[in-house]
Amino acid sequence: MAKNRTLKALTSDSRIENQNKIAYLFIAPWLLGFLTFVIYPFFKTIYNTFFKITSESIGLTYVYNLIDKGGNYGTAFRNLNFFPQLFDFIVMEFTYVPTIIIIAFILAVLLNTGVKGQGIFRVIFFFPVIIMSGPITGILYWNGAGSLLTYADNIIFKMILSYSPQLAEALSGLFGNFTMVLWFTGIPVILFINALQKINVNLYEAAKIDGANGWQILWKIKVPIVKPTAFVCAVFTIVQLGTYTGNPVFYTIQYSIYDRGGGIGLASTFAAIYTFVVFLLVGVAWFLLGRSEKVKKVELSSIQRLGMEDLARRREQQKKGTVNAQ
Amino acid sequence: MNALLQNVRSRFEDAKAYVKGHKAKVTRIVSRIAIYIFLITISYVFLYPILRMLSISFMSASDLVNPEVGWLPSKFTLINYGIAWKVLNGTVSLFNSIKYSGLMAISQTVISALTGFAFARYEFKGKKFLYTIILLSFIIPVPILLITQYNMFNEFYQLIGRTGQGQGIGSYDSQMLMAFFGQGVNSAILIMIFVNFFKLIPNDLYEAGKIDGANPFQLFWHITIRLSLSTIVVVFLFSFVWNWNEDYVTKFLVGDGIDLFTNQLGKFDSLFSTRTTGLTHPDAGGEIQLVESFKMAATVISVIPLLLLYFVGQKSFVQGIEKTGITGE
User: Fold this and answer.
1) B328: distance to nearest CA of chain A, Å?
2) Whole-model pTM?
3) How many CA atoms lie within 13 A of B176 on its CB side?
C-alpha cells in the first residue's frame, strides 16, 4: 500500500498537481497580507484622491469633488509647499543617487583589488546600514555632523555659484550632507563587490593578452557587467531616500497625514503624486541602467533589419522591373 | 660638502635606476599606497558622525561652548548618560524595543521562510507574476499605503471593540498583524534571501525524502529548515535591526502608546523638558540648557544594542545581502 503511494507520488502528473496546491498553502499568509495591506490600500488611496472626505460620527463620508477647481489635485497644485518641495526631492534624487552609485562602485573596485585589511573596511562601510534610522540621521543631520567639508569657501564652489546658483544649491545639498550620502553606500558596496567577484577571471586574462590595460578592463569589462547591479542599487537608494528625514517632501506628507483637518483626500493626493514621482524616478533608472541586455538584441535585430531592408529594396526593384516590362 | 653632495646625487641616481628597472613593482606600490590613503580617508568620513557623537556625549555644557575644546572634552563626564537614560525612559524602552523587534522579527522570518520555500521549490500557476509583484512591491512608497492602513485599522479596532488605553491604535497590534501576514519592513528582501538560498538545496534530498514518504511540511521542516539555519539567523538579524530602526509606520500606528528607543529618540527635545524637571546639569549655563550632549549620549545608548549585534553577527549581515542574489541572476 505504502509502496503504491510512493509510486504514485513519483509519477510526474500527480506530483505536479499536488505541488501546485501545496505551494498556495505555503504562500497563503503572505498572499492574504499582500492583498489586504498592500493592494487594497494602494488602490483605495488613489480612489480617495477624487473625494473630499470628512470624518463624521458614523464614519467617513465621501463627496466627489474633482470637478470643483480640480478637487484635491487642484488644492495640491495650489499648495505653496508641496510642489517646490517635490521639485527639491527630485533634485536630491538626481544628485544623490548617481553620487552614491559611483562612490559605491569605486569603493567596491578598490576593495576588490585585494588590499590587506579588506574585512575592516567592509565592516566600516556596512555599519551605517545597521544603525541608520530616521531619528539618528535626523539628529546627526541637524547637528551638522554630516557636513564635514567646508565647501562654501572653496574657490571652485564660488565659481559655480556665480555661474549657476541652481547648480550650486544642488551641490551644496550634496556636500553639506556628504557623510549621510556616504552612509547610503553600505548596501550598494556589498552588492558591487559581490558582482565584481563573480566576473570570470579568464575575461581579464583574455583582455590582457589582447593588450588591454587596467583602465580599459575597468570600462570594457567591469562597468558593463555590473550594470544590472547598478540598477538594483539605484532602485534601492531611491526607495531608501524616500523614508530619509533629509528628504524635502518628507515632513509635508507626514503632517498632511497627521492633520485630519486638511482631509484624508488631500493627504492621499500628496501621497499619490509622490508615489507617481518615485515610480517615474525608478523608470528613469531603468531607462539608464536596466536595459543592458536589450541593447544587444537591438543591435542584432538592426543588422537583421538592414538585411531585410536590402531584401525588400531588391524585391521592390524587381517588381518595378516587371511593371516596367509590362 | 662636495663629497656629501656627490653622495646624495649618486644615491638619487641609484634610486632612479631602481625605479627604471622595477617600474611595474614601483607603480604597484605607489598605487597601493594611494588606494590605502583613499580608503582610510573615506572611512574617516564614514565614521566622522559617530566619532563626533561619542566625543560630544562625554562633554559638559561648558566644553560644548568652549571653542578651544575640539575632540577631547576637558574632563570626561558620564552624567550625560544618566540623564539621557532617564529621558529615554531607558529600562522600559530597552525592554520594549527588544520585545517588539524580536516578536516582529520572528513572525517575519517564519512567514518569509514559508513564502520563500513555495517560490523556490514549486511550480505553480501565477508564480512568475507573483514573484515580480514581490519585487515591485518594494518600490511602493510607504505613505500611499499608510493612509488607508491607518483608516482600516481604526475601523477594525472599533468593530471588534479594542479602543481603550494601550489597545488598538497606540498598541503594537497593527504592526504585529502586518508582520504576521508577511508585510513587515522590507519583507520583499527577506523573501528574496530565502528564495535564493532554498534554490541551492539539491533536489535529490527532497526526492529521497519523498520516497521515504515525507509530506511537504515534513520536507520543509526536516530538510529545508535544518539545512538553512545560518540563513535563518541572517534574516532574523536583518528583520530585528530593521524593525528596531523603523519609525515611520510606528509613528502613525503606535504613536506615543509605547516607549521604544527609536521613537523616544525622535522626540528627545520635547521629552527632555518634561522628564528632567528638577534636574539640572551641574554646570548648565544659567537659563540656557544645552541639550546637545544629552542628545548625543541618548543616540549612543540607542545605537549600542545594534552595534553589539553587528559585531557578533558581522559576517552574517554581509552574507545576507550577498545572498539576496539580486546581483545579476
Assistant:
1) 6
2) 0.81
3) 12
